[in-house]
Design a protein that fits this description.
The protein has 761 residues and is α/β, with parallel strands linked by helices. It is 50% helix and 17% strand. The two termini are 42 Å apart.
Length: 761
C-alpha cells in the first residue's frame, strides 16, 4: 500500500510550527521570516540541483509552516490587544461587547469586538470565555451581548485569549442575525422534543444527531468516556457523509446534473455546520467533504490522505490556535487512522475470521491505536472494553443519526412527525447509552497508565508494535507480536503491583483528604474520630465514591462555603449522614432550596459568620469570614466561609494546622489577612481551584507547607493559573493538585512542620 504524503508532511510541519509558536506569539514574526528565507534558499537549491524531490518537499514544508506563522503574527494583535493585556489579572473592571459563539451550563464563549477600558475603546477579534452568571446558557448563537467584569489572560497557546468573570448577567444588545437564528430555533425545538423522551435515550439523541450534548448527564457522559464511545456525540465525517449522501441521492432522483447536485450539497452542508455549530471536528469534516465534492465535480480521483492533509492545512492557516486543540487533533488522527489503517487491519484479521467481523473490529481498533496516545494526556488510563463497546454501539449510531436528523428537520414544520421520528430514533440511542453504562460499570473498565509525555511515548510504542504485529512483513510479525506480548505481560504485572503498592502506602493516620470530584471542592478533615467535610463537589456519585473509599459513614460537621453548583451539587449524597451544617449568606430562593435539602437530610443548619469557634477532635476551629456586616461584600465567591484549624489536643503524632478558603477572592483575602492568628500553617486549601484572583501577600503570610488545589483536569477556566502557582512557589508552599494526582491524603510528618503527602496517581 502506497500513501501519498506530498501534502501530509507539509501539514505536519505546519502543525508542529503552529503548536510551538502560539505558545510564544512574540516569536511569530522572526520565525515566519526565517521560514520564508529557508523556503527561498531551498527553492533556489532545488532549481540548481534538478531532480531532488526531497528539496521540493522541504520547500513545501517551510512554506506551509511560514504561512501559519505569518497568520499567527497577523492575528495576535487583534486576539490580545496590548491595552487589554495591561489590565488583565489586575482586577480592573472592563466593559466587553461581543457575540456568543457557544454556550454551556456555566459559561458562554464570546468573540469580542470591543472592550471599554477607563473610557477608551479597544477593538479586535478577541475569543473569550465568560463565567459565573445563571441564565446565559439560553442565549442563542450569535447573540450580541455586553458584559462588565474582570479579565485574566489564558494560558499561552489556548484557543481563547482571555477569561472573563462577570459582575452581573450579560445585557443583550441585539438578537442573533437571521442566518444564525434559524438554527437556534431548530436546535431548541429538536432538543426539547428529544428530552421529552424517557431515560438516557432521550438525553443522548440530540448529541448523536446534531452534537448537542447539553442534556447528557455527568454520569452518562462519564460512562460514554469510560467505554470509549464519546466520539459518537461529536459531529464528524459520518454525519457530513449522511447529509451529502441524502442530497446527492435526491438530486439524482430529480435528474439534476452533477454540478447542481454538488452545489446543492455544499449549500446544505454549510447550513448543517451552522446547525451543529462550527466546532473544530465539524469544520474538519465539512471542509473535507467540500474538497471531495469539488474533486468529483472536476472528475479527478479522490485520495483520502491528501484531502485530509489539505483540509488540516487550510484550517491551521485560518486558525493556527487549533494546533493545540484536543478535539481537532483527535478528529484528524481518527480520520487518518481510518484512512490508513482500517483497511489493512481488516484484511489482516480477515485471515482468521469472517470479513464482516474483521471490519467491525478494524474500524474502532484503527481509531483507538492512533488516538489513545493523545487521550492519555486527558485521562491517564486505558478503556479496557473500548473496542468491544464500539463494535456493539457503532452499528446503531448511523440509524440514530439519520432518523434524528430527519426528526430535527421535521419538528418545526410537522411537530407530530418530528415526535414520531424521535421516538423511532430513541431505540438506537437508548441502546448506545445502555452499552456505555454496561461496560463502564464492569470491573476494570479503565486500566491505569503513566501520565504525561512518558505515558504518550509508551503508548505510542505499544501502538506501533501492535500495527507492526498485524501489518508488518512476514518475518517481522512474530517478533513484533512477541514484543507486544512481553509488554502486555509486564504491564499487567506492574499495574497489579503498583495498585497493591498504592493501597499499602496509603497513610492510616491521614488527617486531610482532598477528594477528586472533577471541577469542584470536597475536602475531608479527620481528628480523633470526628469528621468535617468542606463542600460536596458537583456530583453526588463522585462524592459518594470518595467517602466510601475513605470509610466515612458519618459527618459531624459539613461546611458549605458558598452556594455555587461545584460546591453544593453533591449534597444529595449526604442525606442522613450530617449532624451539623454551616452555610454562608443566601442570595435568594435557589440558595434557600439548597439549605432546605440539607436540613431535610437530618442536619441542623446554621448560617455562620466571623468569630464563631469550636472544636473538632483535637483541633480548635475559628470562622474568619464572612463578616457580620456584608456591606461591600458580594455574595458568592467573595463571601465564602473561611475557617482555620489549630491543634489543641494530644494528637498521637501531632496535628496539622490548616486553613480552608472556599472560593475566597483577592479583596476578601486581604481583609482576612489581619484576622489570622496562627504564625504559619501546615496546609492551605487554595481558594477558587487555583484561579488568578489571589492575594500574594495573603499566601506569603500563611507560609503553608502544602497547598491543596481541588481542580478538574482539562477544565475550561484555565485553573490553576500560572500566576497562582508562582505565588505558592514564592511562599514556599508545595502545590498538590487533584487534576494531576487524583485523591490527595495529608498526614502529619515525622517532625513538626512537615507533612506526609499521599496521592492516588
Amino acid at each position: 500500500m502506497t500513501i501519498d504524503l506530498r501534502l501530509a508532511l507539509p501539514a505536519v510541519g505546519a502543525w508542529v510550527a503552529s503548536a510551538i509558536v502560539i505558545g510564544v506569539p512574540s516569536a511569530a514574526v522572526p520565525v515566519a521570516i526565517a521560514l520564508w528565507l529557508l523556503a527561498a534558499l531551498v527553492a533556489v537549491a532545488a532549481v540548481v540541483m534538478r531532480g531532488r524531490q526531497w528539496l521540493a518537499l522541504t520547500v513545501l514544508i517551510a512554506v506551509a509552516a511560514g504561512i501559519c506563522c505569518t497568520s499567527i503574527a497577523l492575528a495576535t494583535p487583534t486576539r490580545q490587544p496590548d491595552a487589554l493585556l495591561a489590565v488583565a489579572d489586575t482586577g480592573q473592571r472592563v466593559t466587553v461587547t461581543g457575540s456568543t459563539t457557544s454556550t454551556g451550563t456555566d459559561h458562554v464563549a464570546l468573540l469580542v469586538d470591543s472592550v471599554e477600558i477607563d473610557g477608551a475603546v479597544v477593538t479586535g477579534a478577541i475569543p473569550m470565555i465568560e463565567f459565573g452568571q445563571p441564565g446565559e446558557s439560553t442565549f442563542g448563537i450569535g447573540t450580541s451581548v455586553q458584559v462588565v467584569g474582570t479579565v485574566t489572560r489564558s494560558e499561552p497557546g489556548d484557543d481563547v485569549a482571555f477569561l472573563l468573570f462577570a459582575d452581573a448577567p450579560a445585557i443583550v444588545v441585539a438578537p442573533p442575525p437571521w442566518y444564525l437564528d434559524w438554527a437556534n430555533g431548530l436546535r431548541a425545538s429538536f432538543a426539547a422534543t428529544a428530552q421529552s423522551l424517557p431515560g438516557d435515550g432521550g438525553d443522548l439523541l440530540a448529541g448523536l444527531a446534531i452534537g448537542d450534548t447539553s442534556a447528557v448527564s455527568d454520569e452518562l457522559d462519564a460512562a460514554m468516556k469510560a467505554s470509549s464511545l464519546s466520539h459518537l456525540t461529536a459531529v464528524s465525517g459520518a454525519n457530513c457523509a449522511v447529509v451529502i449522501g441524502l442530497i446527492m441521492a435526491a438530486g439524482a432522483a430529480l435528474g439534476l446534473p452533477r454540478g447542481a447536485r454538488v452545489g446543492a450539497s455544499i449549500i446544505v452542508l454549510v447550513a448543517f455546520v451552522v446547525l451543529v455549530t462550527p466546532e473544530p471536528s465539524v469544520l474538519r469534516a465539512a471542509l473535507m467533504a467540500v474538497l471531495v465534492l469539488l474533486a468529483l465535480l472536476s472528475g479527478r480521483p479522490v485520495r483520502g490522505v491528501p484531502v485530509l492533509a489539505l483540509a488540516t492545512l487550510i484550517l491551521l492557516v485560518l486558525d493556527p490556535w487549533l494546533a493545540r486543540n484536543y478535539g481537532f487533533a483527535l478528529s484528524v488522527l481518527a480520520t487518518g487512522g481510518l484512512l490508513v489503517l482500517a483497511g489493512p487491519i481488516a484484511r489482516a484479521l480477515g485471515r482468521w475470521m469472517p470479513t464482516w467481523l474483521a471490519i467491525m473490529i478494524a474500524v474502532p481498533l484503527a481509531a483507538q491505536l492512533v488516538c489513545q496516545p493523545v487521550i492519555i494526556l486527558l485521562n491517564a488510563s486505558l478503556p479496557t472494553y473500548g473496542v468491544l463497546a464500539n463494535m456493539l454501539a457503532e452499528p446503531a449510531a448511523p440509524i440514530a443519526t439519520v432518523i434524528g436528523l430527519a426528526a430535527c428537520a421535521a419538528t418545526p414544520v410537522a411537530p407530530q412527525l418530528g415526535v414520531f421520528l424521535c421516538q423511532v430514533a430513541w431505540l438506537p440511542s437508548a441502546w448506545i447509552a445502555a452499552v456505555a453504562r454496561f461496560f463502564a460499570n464492569l470491573p476494570g473498565a479503565r486500566l491505569p497508565w503513566p501520565s504525561g509525555m512518558l505515558g504518550v511515548g509508551l503508548l505510542a510504542l505499544v501502538s506501533t508494535l501492535a500495527v507492526l504485529a498485524l501489518l508488518g512483513r512476514e518475518r517481522w510479525r512474530r517478533s513484533m507480536a512477541f514484543c507486544l506480548a512481553v509488554v502486555v505481560i509486564c504491564y499487567t504485572g506492574l499495574a497489579g503491583g503498583s495498585q497493591l503498592a498504592v493501597d499499602l502506602s496509603r497513610p492510616s493516620n491521614w488527617q486531610i483528604a482532598a477528594c477528586d470530584v472533577d471541577q469542584g471542592d470536597a475536602i475531608v478533615m479527620r481528628s480523633a474520630g470526628q469528621i468535617a467535610l468542606f463542600d460536596a463537589g458537583p456530583d453526588p456519585k463522585l462524592l459518594t465514591a470518595c467517602l466510601h473509599e475513605l470509610g466515612v459513614t458519618r459527618i459531624d460537621l459539613f461546611v458549605l462555603t458558598h452556594f455555587h453548583l461545584d460546591h453544593y451539587g453533591g449534597v444529595s449524597a449526604l442525606a442522613g449522614m450530617v449532624d451539623q451544617a454551616f452555610v454562608g449568606p443566601s442570595a435568594g430562593p435557589s440558595d434557600d432550596r439548597v439549605v432546605a435539602d440539607i436540613a431535610a437530610g437530618g442536619a441542623h443548619v446554621q448560617q455562620v459568620e466571623a468569630g464563631l469557634n469550636g472544636t473538632l477532635g483535637d483541633l480548635h476551629w475559628r470562622v474568619l469570614w464572612p463578616p457580620h456586616q456584608l456591606a461591600g461584600v458580594e455574595l458568592g465567591n467573595p463571601s465564602s466561609i473561611t475557617i482555620e484549624f489549630q491543634p489543641v489536643g494530644a494528637c498521637p503524632n501531632g496535628c496539622l494546622s490548616a486553613i480552608f478558603l472556599g472560593d475566597l477572592t483577592e479583596d476578601p483575602q486581604t481583609r482576612v489577612l489581619g484576622t489570622v492568628q496562627q504564625p504559619r500553617f501546615d496546609v492551605v486549601k487554595v481558594a477558587h481551584h487555583g484561579s488568578a484572583d489571589q492575594s500574594e501577600a495573603f499566601y506569603d503570610r500563611l507560609h503553608a507547607t502544602v497547598g491543596v488545589i481541588s481542580v478538574g483536569a482539562d477544565n475550561d477556566y484555565g485553573h490553576p493559573a500560572s500566576s497562582l502557582l508562582g505565588i505558592l512557589e514564592r511562599a514556599g508552599t508545595s502545590a498538590e493538585r487533584t487534576d494531576e494526582r487524583g485523591m490527595i491524603l495529608l498526614a502529619p510528618g515525622d517532625t513538626p512542620g512537615t507533612v506526609k503527602v499521599w496521592t492516588e496517581h
